[in-house]
Amino acid sequence: MSALYKEIRTLAAGRDWRGRSRTPRSAAPHEQPVEPKEFPTGWARTAGARVARRGLQRGLLRPLTWTTTRPEVQGKDHLDALTGPVVFVANHSSHLDTPLILGSLPDRLAKRVAVGAAADYFFDARWRAAVTALIFNAFPVERYRSRRLQSLAPRLLARGWSLLLFPEGTRSEDGWMSPLRLGAARLCVGQRVPAVPVALRGTFGAMPRGRNWPVPGRPRVVVRYGAPLLPAAEESARDFNTRLAASVARLWAEEDVGWYASLRAQARGELALPTGPAAASWRRIWESSRPVAQRRPDRVWRD
Hints:
Blueprint: H1 2-12, H2 47-68, E1 70-74, E2 87-90, H3 97-104, H4 107-110, E3 113-118, H5 119-122, H6 126-136, E4 138-141, H7 153-158, E5 162-165, H8 183-191, E6 195-201, H9 203-206, E7 220-225, H10 237-257, H11 259-267, H12 281-288
Parallel strand pairs: 1-7, 2-5, 2-6, 3-4, 3-5
Antiparallel strand pairs: 6-7
């Protein structure tokens, strides 16, 4: 009797016994799609929120990241001359990437960085959006055109905030890089601000997709900063994006072959984005998850 009552209720609601609508799709009235509302993040840049964020980052996030992994930071001398807003452009393969960059930056730069976060992932629930905005000073970045959210990035740069962006658009599924999308390069060219390339090594092996905590053993991870790149007067966003990708590729290779050899390889046109071997997915993941070996520093002047 209960099953019959359930079927009667289904039919009365305009559905057939399989739960599908009895009205043909072509006869259904057109409904205007509801555009998503952008989660407000301006409060995260108020004086009180900035004080709370610095306490959370320096007192909780950095110690936690530095005790569960073994970070090594290279190229911080490239940051010494930075005075105005810049765009930090990094590869992305782990949730460790943002804490490592924010924790390795000098305090004068870290406290003025806003992080671009995927609108459909970090801002799909209000509690997650609030936590992300507070701890990371994050703002939503549209990964898919269907959302049509207006980017805050140009306004933040105009107000003196530096940005941390991951132009691949999403975390790597196997630890290797994907081509850089044009958004960060267009922003730098349009706003006439420099980009600082950043290469992260070992973060995929330390905390790949699917893990909520780094692997045991404090794996070594490397954060390597490159020299700031300023768009030339007539340089297009596509050309600048090519330069950015080349700089990230050289920083990535520097961990394997050293500073001088990576410069020589770049000059010979032998470097490209590390997209990984043409092999099965398990082999690609196995290769990218190799522990980052300790290297002796090159005894040469840096560029």
